[in-house]
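Please review this one.

:::
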Amino acid sequence: MYPTSVPTALLDVRVRRIGGDFLLSRADRSYSLSDSAAFIWQQIDGRRDATEIAHRLAAEYEVATDAALADTLGVLHELTGLGLLGHAETQTGTGA
């Protein structure tokens, strides 16, 4: 996952709130997310790249943008590894 990666939620991932927990489920597995990871998940719309999501995280939690980007990339990498996300790379600065 790169700062220009655009994460996309897989269509068969179910999202639930149970009590104070934010849960993602796919097939027979469920995963509980921290508050910041849940915020990141909620920003995934198939259009925003990781950098834009990180800027939103920084504003929401009043943290430095570079720290928010590191956290965002970490969460997106973990969710991808769990089979909950796909992503598309964007091309920038191609001079076209």
About this structure: The CA atoms of residues 52 and 77 lie 16 Å apart. The chain has three helices and five strands. The longest strand covers residues 21-26.
